[in-house]
Amino acid sequence: MPDYGHSLEFGVFLPPAADQFAGTLRLAQTADVLGLELVSIQDHPYNATFLDTWTSLSVIAATTSHVRVFPNVANLPLRPPAMLARAAASLDVITGGRVELGLGAGAFWDAIAAMDGRHRTPAESVEALEEAITVIRTLWTPGRGIRVRGKHYSLDGARPGPFPAHDIGIWIGAYKPRMLRLVGRLADGWLPSSSYAPPDQLAGMNAIIDEAAAAAGRSPNDIRRLYNIDNSFTAAQLAELALTEGVSGFILVVNDDGELRRFAEEVAPAVREIVAGERDSRPKAPAVDRLGVIPTPDDGTRVSDERLWDESARPTGPAPEAEAVYTPTGKALGQQLIDVHNHLRRELNNVRSLVKRVADGTLAAGAARSEINTMTMRQNNWAMGAYCESYCRLITMHHTHEDRSLYPQLRAGDERLGPVLDRLTEEHHVIHEVLERVDAALVAMVAEPKKVVDLQDAVDVLTDTLLSHLSYEERELVEPMARIPYHY
Predict the structure, then answer these.
(1) What is the pLDDT of residue 365?
(2) Which of 309, 241, 256, 351 is nearest to 472 (CA)?
(3) Does 452 or 250 have the greater pLDDT score?
(4) DSSP-derived pairing of the beta strands 101-104 and 247-253
(5) What is the reported pLDDT for 384?
(6) Within 10 A of 487 (CB to CB), how many other CB atoms are there?
(7) Contact predicate 183/220, CB 8 Å
(8) Phi/psi at 153 (nearest 5 deg)?
(9) Measured distance CA(72)–CA(226) in Å, rounded
(10) Kind of pairing, strands 247-253 and 224-229?
(11) How far apart are CA 316 and CA 129, in angstroms?
(12) Is the pLDDT of residue 377 over 50?
């Protein structure tokens, strides 16, 4: 299996027993001081001798400064995903982005049933996990009231939020083929334990994940591979797993200070040195190939005759350099920009669909928002207006974040981007004026339905300017975002 090129991270798997928490807390604080990245605790709520995992993680997070904390892995059958989403996001906000989410489909079903959890079949547990991921991510995504209809989990008008301080990774504990395929399709990370997935089985499991990822239109590099291990592994063995099996996170089960210190002070540095040396000795791939994040091209389609800027006058940034170093975090940030843009593109299609329905004199069936059902024309106008206004606010918030946070950091990281960033900011102002025009057309249309034609014209101009701008921004910024450090 390949080396996916992810940066290496090291962490600990701490004891959950109630009568050991003072020692567990000291171990977590030591891991923080010694520079480890991750601290985790298993989640078996039915075990009366264990403390509650989220309570324990909250105390650990409050008494550390750098480590990220996560359940290893959260017991989904006893933790409803909507509440899990709110709990993880809340702790992420409180800690300034130091939470990840390990998630499992469940085990020990009799014990789960004893605490009023559902006893699921293997097939049902995988279905429930997939639905849970949808619920969790939906509640982390800005929007209006949400409806999700599932066999196991549903949302009926729930409002999303709080929103995490950073893009929380959903790391799945999985071993069987169906679960591994789910990891490939949906997860941010795979989190097996060496006791259940020994090293000689990793290649076959990774192959299933990678095949599922490719079938879902994802790159295998999108999925971080973490590994729960015991202290029998040497630095050389861990380096080999990183270089041949793509493992980039090693989580050691520790019970005492000596084990932790040896891992942090001897093993982890040695693994980093071996892996870095091997990677440095390899022939360097061209920068564009190593980036692995593909900007959305502008297909040149325009729906309005009105042109608000000269696209040929747009400046371009520096060409990618062959020796450029792209971090996993930077590449993820570039992909996140594309994902946000794709969300805006989908929402724009929804706005255009609603406007067309009004122009055609038909009733909205709720294509843009599941809560918008068949309505009278007046109600349809009101619903469309509320939705369009919400969409306009979404674009404005996105541009404000770029102008105030992203662009200044990119400018500081590479001054050659200055002309591009200036042009993008100018285009933000133009798009803001178009949004104001859409808003004015909305007000006029609600008062006088025949003026829906003016609204259509305004939305056409918005379509041309916004789609052109998004493609230009991705073309110029995805590469520098992957190589310039960015701080949320």
Answers:
(1) 28
(2) 309
(3) 250
(4) unpaired
(5) 45
(6) 6
(7) no
(8) -135, 140
(9) 11
(10) parallel
(11) 44
(12) no
Task: Reply yes or no on whether the pLDDT at 455 is more than 90.
Answer: no
Q: How distant, in Å, are the alpha carbons of 211, 218, 328 from that of 185?
A: 9, 7, 19
Same domain, yes or no: 197 and 319: no
Based on the fold, state whether residues 125 and 32 are members of the same structural domain.
yes
Q: Phi then psi for 104, rounded to 5 degrees? A: -130, 155
Amino acid 409: pLDDT:
83
Residue 411: domain span: 311-483
pLDDT for 106 beyond 60? yes
Mean pLDDT across 67-96: 97
In this structure, the answer to whether residues 191 and 128 fall within a common structural domain is yes
The residue whose two tokens read 């290496």 is: 8
* 315 and 276 within one domain: no
Among 302, 319, 288, smallest CA distance to 468 is for 302
Residue 360 domain flag? yes
Task: Report the residue count for the chain.
Answer: 488
Whether residue 102 contacts residue 228, with contact meaning beta carbons closer than 8 Å, is answered with no
In this predicted structure, what is the pLDDT of residue 217?
79
Is residue 301 in some structural domain?
Answer: no
Q: What is the pTM of this model?
A: 0.63
Q: Is the pLDDT of residue 55 over 80?
A: yes
Question: pLDDT at residue 381 above 60?
Answer: no
| Domain shared by 115 and 263, yes or no | yes
Please, which residues bridge with residue 226 across strands? 249
How would you classify the pairing of strands 224-229 and 189-190?
parallel
Amino acid type, 148: V
Encoding tokens for residue 344? 């805006």
**Residue 133: HSE in the Cβ half-sphere, 13 Å Cα cutoff:** 21
pLDDT of residue 367: 31
How many of the other CB atoms lie within 10 Å of CB of 375? 16
The CATH number linked to 344 is 1.20.120
At residue 337 the predicted structure's pLDDT band, cuts being 50, 70 and 90, is confident
What residue has token string 């003072």?
A: 22
